[in-house]
Design a protein that fits this description.
mainly alpha; 74% helix; 0% strand
């Protein structure tokens, strides 16, 4: 049961957040809270050392502080910052976190280029006009749903984490 939780919970919550960000340009606080609660539950079930859990929370807090600085500068959205902080709990102080940040940057850059190209299209076919989410993506005043890039990077890095390495023993 714990192994199934490790295989499903984290990737599922990241995928749901990505879909929310694509269709609504927001990542609900409830999803970020679920990521934190799931982290605590799994840490408890797997009896992770308290020091390791504490370091994960310290990392999450650091990501939050830096992220809100970027939010204040208008570089990132608040939901993206909270999403990054919640994911960082799961990755901890490890090379996985560096891989995650690098991949998020690469995927975020690619996503931004795709959306900028989309915004250069002067009009959409008639059947797309009723799609509010697509029109919002096309709006030059709208942001980029960076949560998609964050989620993809998180899901890609997740199999390299200590969580995955424990699955065969459960």
């Amino acid at each position: 049961m714990i192994a199934n939780g490790l295989l499903i919970i984290f990737p599922l919550l990241l995928a749901v957040a990505a879909f929310f960000d694509l269709f609504t340009m927001t990542i609900p606080n409830k999803l970020n809270l679920l990521l934190v609660i799931a982290f605590v539950a799994m840490a408890f079930l797997l009896q992770l050392p308290l020091q390791q859990v504490g370091m994960s929370f310290a990392l999450g807090f650091g990501v939050m502080v830096i992220g809100f600085g970027l939010f204040a500068l208008g570089v990132m959205g608040g939901g993206d910052v909270k999403f990054l902080a919640a994911i960082s709990l799961w990755l901890g102080l490890s090379m996985n976190m560096l891989d995650f940040i690098l991949l998020t940057s690469i995927y975020g850059g690619a996503l931004t280029l795709v959306i900028l190209a989309l915004r250069k299209v002067p009009y959409f076919p008639q059947f797309m006009h009723g799609q509010a989410w697509l029109l919002k993506l096309h709006d030059k005043k709208s942001g980029v749903p960076y949560g998609i890039a964050i989620a993809i990077a998180g899901i890609q890095v997740y199999p390299n984490t200590l969580w995955f390495s424990q699955i065969p023993t459960l």
